[in-house]
Amino acid sequence: MNRLGNLVKMAKRPAPPVGSTPAQVVHHENKWRLLRYMPRAEGIVHRTPILLVPSLINRHYVLDLLPGKSFAAWFVEQGFDVFTIDWGTPSDEDRFVTFDDVCDTALGRAIRLVARHGADDRAHVLGYCLGGTLAAIHASVRPEHVASLTLLAAPVRFADDGLLTRWTRTKSFDVKLASEAFGLVPWQLLQSAFHLLRPTLSVSKVVHVLDRAWDDESMDGFLALETWGNDNVSFPGACYERYIQALYREDQLWKGMFALSGLPARLEALTMPLHVLTFQHDNIVPAESAGCVLERAASEDKVHLHLPGGHVGAVVSKSASTRLWPQLARFWAERDTKTPLSALRATAAPKAEAAPKAEAAPKAEAAPKAEAAPKAKAPAKLEPTHVNGAGPRPGRKGAPRGRSSHRS
């Protein structure tokens, strides 16, 4: 009876509270934002901050799905200082945003801003799916502020037997024409490709709902994933064109031919601690497409974790909190900087822009005053911003645009 009652109530069931962990917008630029999850009341334990880099075509809150199933919130509770990128919603004027604009300019600025919150001006970087590809390319060219690199189901070799690779290489798919015709490649086109990977997925979802309808917790998780899975983002045309042509069709990253802002991006240049995670039942990024980075990376500190589960379920399911998340926490904790805690900078608020000018002031007496300025202007604890709900988002009416609020 409980199962039948829950099925009847589904139409009136409230929307799941996705992305509800309190966070502050510490930087915004055009459509993308850098969010900092509010540190726990006991304070930050680990000295090196973490930056989460999600895929461009999905919302960032997959890593902050629900209370009790939030990747980000769990790491905050372990004493980590956690940041994430919200890529936002591109609009018509973003059709000419290039791969370099995203992977070098935006991602580079986010890494530098997060690194300022650490004790040695570096950050742990985790890239998920396409976000991992972006992180690997960027770290191979500009490793200065990357303390470690974690690639979570992130493809680096695209010449595999996966269906996505086969489809993108068909002669009938004119990526340049699609880019020029649409400007922004529609999210519906992207989503349909993933649906075709598992044509019976919709049927299996219906069976799952009927089978688990008695379980409120299971239904909440299902609806949260469905909310995220249908909240997709269109792809800037210029960026998409290079992504498909250079990576999927020509496999330039694996062949050592890819360049970022004119500089060679080679996997052999990855020398920082490297953590690679692949999943046994991942039908989007095959394990051989993601795990092969270990063959090329020059890092002396490499860890590979291959776990059961799929591309999303293994990362955000209830079992992930006991299987995957502790492994990541251990990796980062063991590689935390040895700089004393007293050297931590800006643990409660972003670094003030006035600081560099104060250091260059001719009067030595002015330096102590300048260091104290951020505390006077910014309270130690800010009110969290509602970053995933009904408030305005960049790229939509009422959202902030134009110049960024910070520079790096």
Could you explain the architecture of this structure?
This protein has helices spanning 2-9, 71-77, 99-115, 130-141, 163-168, 175-182, 187-197, 201-212, 216-229, 237-249, 252-255, 287-291, 293-296, 313-316, 320-323, 325-334, 354-359, 366-377, and strands at 23-29, 32-37, 50-53, 82-86, 123-128, 146-152, 184-185, 235-236, 259-260, 263-264, 274-279, 302-307. The protein has 408 residues and is an alpha/beta fold. It has a domain at 18-176 and 246-347: Alpha/Beta hydrolase fold, catalytic domain (Rossmann fold, 3-Layer(aba) Sandwich). The longest helix is centred in the N-terminal third of the chain and has 17 residues, at 99-115. The chain starts with a helix and ends in a 31-residue tail after the last helix. Mean pLDDT is 82; it is low at 341-386 and 389-408.
Key traits:
408 residues, alpha/beta, Rossmann fold, two-stranded antiparallel sheet, globular, disordered C terminus
Kindly report how far apart the N and C termini lie: 58 Å
Number of helices: 18
Question: Which residues sit in consecutive blocks of at least 5 with pLDDT less than 50?
Answer: 341-386, 389-408
Q: Please give the order of strands in the largest beta sheet.
A: 1-2-4-3-5-6-11-12
CATH topology of the domain at 18-176 and 246-347: Rossmann fold
What is the mean predicted local confidence, pLDDT? 82
Rg on CA atoms, Å: 22 Å
| Secondary-structure arrangement, i.e. CATH architecture of the domain at 18-176 and 246-347 | 3-Layer(aba) Sandwich
**Helix amount, in percent?**
25-40%
